[in-house]
Design brief:
single chain, 179 residues, alpha+beta, Alpha-Beta Plaits, 2 domains, five-stranded antiparallel sheet, four-stranded antiparallel sheet, 30% helix
């Protein structure tokens, strides 16, 4: 069954368009449209995987942004304070002259982490938001309201609200989501 195709227009910075053209030039795609369509399918799939987060999750949110966009650095910092119930720590790195990477360690309610991701994605100047979950309560661990999480079975894992964590035995499941 062939799906109808609709034509649309997208405004891109020249450097991004040049990157798309480079991908097309490798021969993997026959046209810009085909490359962009494939990228959009991947984007939609990844966003769908980040919806409906639930239970207790632990992991890292990576935020790539252009630090010279007015206010974006302050807004990223303000969101970390606003979401202090799930933000454990952060690390700021200057990757390029105008590009920064913020690594935010999160632990807490999946719903709250999902809201943080949504708010970060909405900031002007943010290029990419990626969540990697390294621990969750759906793998046999239990979460209590006091910030403690313990796992039973072959591997033992404990995490406390003070930011410390210990993992032994089997490695936790890793899931990665990108924006």
């Amino acid at each position: 069954m062939t799906e109808d195709i609709e034509r649309t227009s997208v405004t891109l910075p020249p450097s991004l368009l040049a990157d798309v053209d480079d991908v097309v030039a490798t021969g993997e795609y026959e046209s810009r449209s085909e490359a962009v369509r494939d990228a959009l399918w991947a984007f939609v799939t990844e966003i769908d995987e980040q919806r409906g987060l639930s239970g207790r999750l632990g992991g890292t949110v990576l935020v790539l942004y252009e630090h010279d966009v007015e206010g974006v650095t302050d807004e990223v910092t303000a969101l970390q304070h606003e979401f202090g119930s799930v933000v454990v720590a952060s690390h700021h790195v200057h990757l390029r002259e105008h590009v920064c990477l913020e690594s935010i360690v999160v632990d807490g309610a999946g719903e709250r982490i999902e809201r943080l991701l949504t708010r970060l994605r909405g900031l002007r100047g943010v290029r990419q938001v990626e969540l990697t979950v390294v621990e969750s309560d759906d793998d046999g661990s239990t979460a209590s309201g006091d910030g403690e999480s313990t796992a039973s079975g072959d591997g033992e894992s404990t995490a406390s609200g003070d930011g410390g964590s210990t993992v032994s035995g089997d490695r936790p499941e890793r899931r990665s989501f990108r924006h």
